[in-house]
Design brief:
The protein has 305 residues and is an alpha/beta fold. The chain is built from eleven helices and nine strands. Helix 1 packs parallel to helix 2 and helix 8 runs parallel beside helix 10.
Length: 305
């Protein structure tokens, strides 16, 4: 069993997929400890896991915490590094050992975001191309410097993750990485894309795309108001509102945003200017790339500024 890294798996209502993922993780050469955090599944997931893999540590939550369920698993881990995955993502053999080596070699790095290959065809997730094209300086890092990461395909330094507070429960899920990334960067940590680490993603065909978009828009606005300087925050809010209006969902979005405003305004803590500038630099780079490759079917859910 690896003495340096634990895998925390977040699960919700996908028993068969979770069992396949756990079987894969148990067969890895690193033999990591596995902690499954179940977000109050209603399909018998906890019972199926206990029956099939009684030795795997399971936390069956009394309520669905969304992305913040990962915080529970990271707290339970006893290793300096933690690999995060969902019930439909699986770390490739050797990737966990390599992540430990990279963390050991780069003590300033809090998060390593892996390369993600999707489905049986192993198509590279488009987000990976965006991460690889980061315009930020990365001379001292194991890969391109980032201002965000993919939560279900990342490895974290446990100490840094916990000090930054983990994932904010009120965001639930959808773009939850952004706020944590901002807080890590504000505390002096670095985030890097490590394409030599591979995660395989087998996404479910059953997803509520409308609810997912609504959460992404709301969370983009909340996060911008929590941490971005005012011009950037307003630009991001305007872009999210514009996308929601085009989808006929503006009133619902405004109501959702308003319900969280008291908390958001109390917790507002603008980024240091240099870090806010890094976000603007990445946004300009991504906007230029999107314009160069724009098609009639391209639409963004990540507000730019």
């Amino acid at each position: 069993m690896s003495p340096s890294i634990t895998v925390v798996v977040l699960s919700h209502n996908r028993a068969a997929t979770l069992l396949a993922t756990v079987a894969h993780l148990r067969a890895l050469p690193e033999q990591p400890e596995i902690v499954v955090v179940d977000n109050r599944s209603r399909d018998g997931t906890p019972g199926s896991l206990r029956k099939t893999f009684p030795d795997v540590k399971l936390v069956a939550l009394a309520s669905n915490l969304g992305a913040a369920g990962r915080n529970v698993g990271v707290h339970l881990a006893q290793t300096p590094y933690v690999a995060l995955c969902d019930d439909d993502t699986r770390w490739a053999p050797g990737a966990l050992a390599r992540a430990c080596e990279l963390f050991d070699r780069h003590p300033e790095c809090a998060v390593l975001s892996a390369r993600v290959l999707v489905g049986a065809a192993e198509l590279e997730d488009p987000t990976c191309r965006r991460m690889a094209a980061s315009p930020l300086p990365s001379e001292r890092l194991p890969g391109p410097a980032l201002v965000g990461f993919m939560a279900g395909a990342s490895a974290v330094r446990r100490e840094a993750f916990l000090a930054a507070g983990g994932f904010e429960p009120r965001l639930f899920i959808g773009g939850e990485e952004t706020l944590l990334a901002m807080d890590l960067l504000s505390q002096g940590w670095q985030i890097a894309y490590a394409p030599e680490l591979t995660v395989h993603h087998y996404p479910s065909a059953v997803r509520d795309a409308g609810q997912r978009r609504a959460l992404l828009w709301r969370n983009a606005i909340w996060t911008a108001l929590l941490r971005r300087r005012l011009p950037s925050a307003l630009a991001i809010a305007a872009r999210a509102a514009h996308e929601a209006a085009r989808a006929g969902a503006l009133l619902a979005l405004l109501g959702a945003v308003a319900r969280g405003l008291p908390w958001v305004l109390r917790a507002r803590r603008p980024l240091p200017r240099a870090i806010d500038a890094a976000y603007r630099r990445v946004a300009r780079s991504e906007a230029a790339a999107a314009h160069a490759h724009r098609s009639p079917h391209t639409a963004g859910l990540v507000p730019r500024s």
